## 1
Amino acid sequence: MSEPRNILMTRELTDEQIALAEELGLRVRIEPAIEIRFRDDWLSVQGAFRNVSNVIYAFTSQNGVKGFERFRKAGVDFPKGPVYAVGGRTAEALREIGLPALWPERQDGVGLAETIISDIEELYGGDDVTIFHFCGNRRRDELRQILSQSDITVMDLVVYSTELKMMKLDGEPDAVLFYSPSAVQAYRNSGGFQKGRKPELFAIGDTTARELSIESGRHVHVSPEPDTEVFLRYVANVLNEPVE
């Protein structure tokens, strides 16, 4: 039996996910790259809903869903409207709080914007629509830019903040796994792309992979699906491939 491969995770895993990694021959070290803080003042968020009629809700992260649920539990009224998610995992988080959501085949901000644009004419016949994007302070700009180019009003409702952490990067893992562009930035700020470190680099999706490729200047492996179990199996397969 081959020796376990050492992987550095930039976010927490569940006990079940750690057990799966061990079954796959992966020795996990967890060093969280970011910390999430949710807002607790909802007055400005509530004020954003005044004088709007046709609304669409857009979510580009599961933390955005968690922030929205805190907002809803605060007893704030908001108009009804269709709900869109960037991908299946975010849609699942919405479904768990009773909000079925649509999501695009291309699971990123560009795909989400294009799907919303194509649906607006059918849903509202070209009437004015406001998109409420529940997001974090480090949100990417693709969704807003594409929707704004189509003269669609977008309101970014920041319901959580992402704080970069200083990571302890002792040792030399065989691979580092990233879940967000913010995690890539935290790794960079912690000296992860210096000191001759050459682990294999893995990203949960295309957006993270683009950021990781720019920062590292190296090849990045991208998970076939934005799912941790699929991600871990993919990492194990890549690390165990024979070197040519």
## 2
Amino acid sequence: MKSRFLALSLIMAGIFSTSCLQEDYSDCYNIYKLVMSYKGDGKTEIFPEKINRVEMYVFDESDACISSTVLPDEDVAARTTVLPPLPAGEYRIVCVANTHDTGVENLTSRDYSQILFAANDYMEGKAVAGNDSLYYASTDYTIKEFSPMIYEETRTAEFASSHYDVLVEVINAPENIGKHPKIEIVGVSPQTDFENVAKGKPADYIMKTVHDGVKTTTARNNIMRHKNHEDVYLKVTGEDGSEVALINFADHIEEYKEYIDPTRHECLIPFRIEYGTPERPYPTDEMRVEISISIPSWVVESVKPIF
């Protein structure tokens, strides 16, 4: 019985070894797993709450992209995937998450600073309303020579945020400003590279607006994590073409730094633009009214300053 088992083992080892020598890795027992993790600004795993789609790219020792795939939904749900069959060598695995309306270009450049992801509308030369809620991860992986013995290894890809969340509220706007003023983010970086660095020729995003039917117009989107807040502005223009506000991001962030920290992964940059005063909350065209610029009260109430 023992000799029969030994003979069978040798035959199976020979089959596996031959298969791998012929560069058909489908029968190899080497298993290389990638676990995906995102904890944001805390210590608790929040990957399932923030990420629902992942694209995985594999680069070899010469920085050539040799594989790209959208991971199956079940792998994303389990936060674990298996690398494609690869010969022994050194690799870099790059993942970009939540790429629903995001494209990637320059994959053949062999230069991570030149491989870029951006909104599909931007890449097609169209007006951009905002970006997906993007996240990025990168990890090195060593693939060893095949062994007929079962071998399994796991690496963890730690995701980082590639976006800021921007919220704008316009309250009590008079009729000449309208229910849907033009709300732009001016001078934002429209691309991010495969080192998770925002870049590209500054672009203007036109945010989509929603009116609640009473007094509030809201716009919300994501933008790339630009480095120079001094170069980025929020611009609001009324339906009649009049300028409502031009707010510098750096100044706004500094004024409300107790509630806005752009170094955090989950960073909301909120704006509240309100017409009128408590005595005259609903201005008319004839009234010359003040505009106050602040942040929504619910942000103040919900954020516990920890900086």
